[in-house]
Write a structure and sequence with these properties.
The structure is a homodimer of 142-residue chains.
Chain A (H helix, E strand, L loop, with lengths): L22 H9 L2 H10 L16 E2 H7 L5 H13 L3 E6 L5 E6 L1 H19 L1 H14 L1
Antiparallel strand pairs in A: 1-3, 2-3
Chain A binds a DNA duplex (20 and 20 nucleotides) through helix 3 and helix 4.
Chain lengths: 142, 142
DNA sequence: CGGAATCCTAACCGATACTG
DNA sequence: CAGTATCGGTTAGGATTCCG
């Protein structure tokens, strides 16, 4: 038991992200990240789809991810992929062709998180107009 | 039509967070933030509850928020609250007692986002052990 | 192709002090 | 109580170069 919040046994539910000392706060910090959300959504098949296509999870190459996330630098992309691999959310597969081919694919754990972050991206897109309207009003009365 | 991705009319769904030029990417950057998640969850009533309490949304004072988010600095808290107010996710109410009392409460828009970020925090807490286990394995083989 | 390594700047963010 | 203002350290993160 390293830094749990309580001693309720090994059956989980003992973490509390509100506590500064709890590791789940650091995890939340990792997950609540623009590039993490977009990488997961890309591997979930959400990018470049017609609105009616079901968006099935798929393996993607490094260069494909770099293209789909149009604003990302290779440094941020690599860094994000490494941390997600370390946390067990995706797998990195090197195919020794020449030149090398590297593919990334969501694990079951990553798929379970995909369901959450996908809704976050959808929310951002679908409520963009509301937010923009509120901002205008807020900035106007200042 | 400022920076939409397509011209599909004024009925929304035209934003695409994968595009670097799209404002929804910036919005996602705002929302995908540790303190945003925790402030919303706190105002959603998720903090300091017994596991079986339903967690109903509630108005909170500045000092209460500061106490619930144990690791936050007043600067980050104020900054987070301001941006959320500007985006129309919460309301700031000043009661002219002496000394002043300021309460924050989620708007309907904020409540709809609460449903999303709440799941993100829950995921982080409930899958903490899985992630920790993967990290150990990853670090061991390096 | 898929990175790693280096440099460098901008921003984030905490600590402190002050205000209505 | 609920902030604002300022300062300064740390880091995020872009640009560039090089490697297997």
């Amino acid at each position: 038991m390293t830094t749990r919040t309580e001693e309720t046994g090994p059956s989980g539910a003992a973490y509390n992200a509100f506590l500064a000392v709890c590791p789940s706060l650091m995890l939340l910090d990792r997950l609540a990240n623009k590039w993490v959300v977009l990488v997961l959504c890309a591997l979930g098949g959400d990018a470049e789809k017609a609105p009616d296509v079901p968006a099935a999870p798929t393996a993607l190459r490094y260069s494909e991810l770099a293209r789909l996330l149009s604003g990302v630098s290779q440094k941020m992309l690599t860094q994000t992929l490494r941390s997600l691999e370390r946390d067990g959310l995706l797998t990195r597969t090197v195919v020794p062709t020449v030149p090398v081919t590297v593919t990334y694919e969501l694990t079951d754990l990553g798929l379970s998180l995909l369901g959450v972050v996908r809704r976050l991206r959808e929310w951002a897109q679908s409520h963009m107009d509301d937010v923009l309207a509120h901002r205008e009003k807020y900035d106007a009365r200042a």
